[in-house]
């Protein structure tokens, strides 16, 4: 009999002390558990309209033979196309298996054990998590009025601070830093740390004071911008996102990037999505507009407070625990995100889908609001 694994010795303390993320179960399993024929996924800010037409065409015409060869190891063609769009050099772009992967590349490139990153307490938490299990300290600056606190973040910088992560607009509050606020932050950071702008929801922005990151990149060599094909572009299942930044900065990031991690289908579909002539993004924005108005009015009528600014999501404050509300909505076929894990207990985040799905959701929510104590939960 071999000796038992001595995990305490083998696994670093910062990994041992980290709790693994538990993704939701597959839809079929959830439908069985909650006894519903269909589940509307309103928990991951996906785009129910599906991929842009050129991407659909490419996907449906794929020759299965292509998967027997490795893809381009550094997404050469896609980086070329993105470089044109961003008016930068190809080498200023790194593609990842989702934006999540590029968050990891950046932390690995700049942070060693004992260093720190600065971000907010109530924002998309993947940077915080990667920092924690890498032995890097996340400094979490409380949001102010549901917005990133520029002064708080700048004040938190010390000699071990390597990266500031700003989610713009913020998931889950939808608030954004304006061009002036961001310029102010970049001036005050003054090259002492890398500044990441996670623009996963940039395509949804329709306000004139949203920063043009292309312009900022020209002026600030310590800036890096993240984008994803998972949200407005509706390619979440293919896992593809990227970063663009100053040449020297990206030169460091490329050392920690995993070659060949973006599969050939994702590369082809992302290239095709970018051929869309604006029809897809227009339709997507219109859907989100209509649904936001519909849900906002309904929540006012139901006396449910909301936080709703930008992005294809809204936050709802329910008069009950968020995990209980989640379960009751699941029993009616609507999957929202319970927000205790985002440090918003009592809130759920709702992805804005088609107006007809939103109508159904409003009906389901109205049912559970007055019937709190009578609903039995599945085990
Ligand atoms: C702010 C933000 N950044 C990054 C991501 C991750 O995107 P991807 O699917 O490209 O990994 C998400 C996904 O929810 C997000 O909300």
Helical content, roughly?
25-40%
Major sheet attributes: 7 strands, mixed
Distance between the termini: 39 Å
Spell out the helices and strands N to C.
HHHEHHEHEHEHEHEHEEHHHEEHEEEH
CATH superfamily of the largest domain: Type I PLP-dependent aspartate aminotransferase-like (Major domain)
Tally of contiguous helical segments: 15
Overall CATH architecture of the largest domain: 3-Layer(aba) Sandwich
Give the number of domains. 2
Describe this structure in words.
A 7-stranded mixed sheet has the order 2-8-7-6-5-3-4, sandwiched between helices. Strands 9-10-13-12 form a 4-stranded antiparallel sheet. A two-stranded parallel sheet has the order 1-11. It folds into 2 domains: 10-50 and 279-374, Aspartate Aminotransferase, domain 1 (Alpha-Beta Complex); 53-273, Type I PLP-dependent aspartate aminotransferase-like (Major domain) (Aspartate Aminotransferase, domain 2). The chain has helices spanning 7-10, 13-16, 27-34, 53-60, 76-86, 99-110, 126-133, 150-155, 179-189, 213-219, 247-256, 264-273, 279-301, 322-330, 355-368; strands at 40-41, 93-96, 116-120, 137-141, 161-167, 194-198, 223-228, 241-245, 306-307, 313-317, 334-335, 337-338, 347-351. Mean pLDDT is 96; it is low at 372-377. The two termini are 39 Å apart. It has 379 residues and is α/β, with parallel strands linked by helices. Helix 6 crosses helix 7 (126-133), helix 6 crosses helix 11 and helix 13 packs parallel to helix 15 (355-368). It is globular. The structure holds pyridoxal-5'-phosphate. Pyridoxal-5'-phosphate binds next to helix 6.
